[in-house]
Amino acid sequence: MKKKKSVGRFFSSGYLILVLLFIYLPILYVMVFSFNESRSMTAFTGFSFQWYENMVNNREMLESIKYTVIIAVVATVVSTVIGTVAAIGLSKARRLIRSIVLEVNNLPVLNPDIVTAISLMLLFLSMKIQRSIVTLTLAHITFCIPYVILSVLPKLRQLDDNVAEAAMDLGATPWKALTKVIIPQIYPAIFSGALIAFSMSFDDFVISFFTAGMDVQNISMYVYSMKRFNPSVNALSTVIVIAVTVILVLANLIPHLKDKKMNKEDPS
């Protein structure tokens, strides 16, 4: 039995290692070759920062980064607020209404991106709205909201409904009950939904391609429009990976440090 268990653990560990290599090895490969002095993606000829310099000096790439970040931040903030409020409302709604709304909410998640993209494009055309950064931002908010709702709603189902009612019985207004009682308890789910919304907006290409104006393009559209491969994209990818890693580390470290500090101040 012990031999069988050890063999099973060996294969499961090996499988996990293969999966991790499959996911992270291409990223490491891109990061390494972002420092390559030549344009080659197969032979590392020498260490250089030239592609980072090219990235900083490439005005078109910087414009795409600016639009990507602005749209992602706006879409994340708006979709997180709307999605959280919608999830709180659905948690208090009747079962039939909640089921119908959730089925509709799941459509953008289950639909192929091309269907959502064409639908939004036709909507803007039918309303005679010229495609621009505004339509692009509205499109991103539209497909980010369902992910926030799906992230927040399960956490709301775990809460005791009597807590908010008890707070209002003790004199709290509905707004204070929301901000002081409900939101602090579901904050991790809200943060997770915001991260998903940001990553979905930052990474999107298909919906952006159909809803953006001629004078606006995000990073994915910029890479798609390149006539030939530019190694500066490797440098850009490396910067994005490092930035995301730092944000995730801080997001997980700061709450841990706060809890540790509170435990020291209140040892009881």
Can you offer a commentary on this structure?
This protein has 11 helices and no strands. The mean pLDDT is 84. The protein is globular and about 70 Å long. It has a domain at 60-230: Orthogonal Bundle (MetI-like fold), CATH 1.10.3720.10. It has helices at 2-33, 50-57, 59-92, 95-110, 113-126, 133-157, 161-169, 174-203, 206-211, 219-225, 232-265.
Low-confidence stretches: none
Q: What's the average pLDDT?
A: 84
Q: Write down the Rg.
A: 23 Å
What do we call the CATH homologous superfamily of the domain at 60-230? Answer: MetI-like
Q: Looking at CATH, which topology of the domain at 60-230 would you report? A: MetI-like fold
% residues in beta strands = under 5%
- Helix fraction, binned, reads over 70%
Order of helices and strands: HHHHHHHHHHH
Put simply, the count of helices is 11
Task: Supply database-style keywords.
globular, 268 residues, MetI-like fold, 11 helices, 80% helix, single chain, mainly alpha
Q: What order do the helices and strands come in, and which of them pair?
A:
Elements: H1 2-33, H2 50-57, H3 59-92, H4 95-110, H5 113-126, H6 133-157, H7 161-169, H8 174-203, H9 206-211, H10 219-225, H11 232-265
Q: What's the gist of this structure?
A:
With 268 residues, the chain is mostly helical. 80% of the residues lie in helices and 0% in strands. The mean pLDDT is 84.
